[in-house]
Amino acid sequence: MIAPPDPSRPVPPGRVRVDCHVHTVESGDAVTTLDQLAERVAVHRIDVVCITDHNHLAGTPEGLSRAIGARAVLGEEIRTRSGELIGLFLTERVPYVLPAREVVELIRAQGGIVCAPHPYDPLRAGVGADLDAMCDAGLIDAVEVFNAKIADPEHNRAAVRTARAYGLPGTVGSDAHDPQGVGAAYLELPDFDGPKSFLDALHEAEHRGEYRPHAPRYTPGPPAASRPGRDLGSRGRSSGSA
Q1: What values do phi and psi take at 193, rounded to 5?
Q2: 25, 102, 173, 211 - which has most CB atoms within 10 Å?
Q3: Each residue of 138-150: pLDDT tens digit?
Q4: How far apart are CA 189 and CA 207, in angstroms?
């Protein structure tokens, strides 16, 4: 059993609280503005947020960190022909609907890491059917072992079993698409300064999370011109949402 979130519990020195899977209005199917994300990050005392908008890079780590009042890891949730993958520590947007192997190569070419989100949830487009083969081929760096939007805990448990079978670390994420979802799941792990140390730290992470339903998918966000954070040095534009 995973422990529930507890924002009142201090994070031990040398460790940080990380939500590995968060969406903003830039995803197209999410409603959270950067101002709202900043408010929720403060409430839940989250130190690091991995912003993983669909098929889009939301800005720069420096600009996003200033906007949300916490360290930002720039990522992307990418639709591939096998299902969705997350790239973290990205510098350039990865195109969508490419073969999964090509997406992995594009993520790693820029020093990023590859995570398999919600692989076995039948309501979301994970890579579950191909995950064993991808892990066996060394294409996956981490598996999302708890996603707070998954109603059936068996789907999360299946991800745990696969991660353990291949000796891969697990990530945890709220997969928040609305402000109320932020803080539903996070890791507490040793502080890190890049992709390699993040992967190392994942092996020492404490997982916390709870199921938390989210706002209806495809709820329109604010008009593009009014969205906060559009001057943050965005390096890519969305080509659709998954």
Answers
A1: -130, 15
A2: 173
A3: 999 999 999 999 9
A4: 9
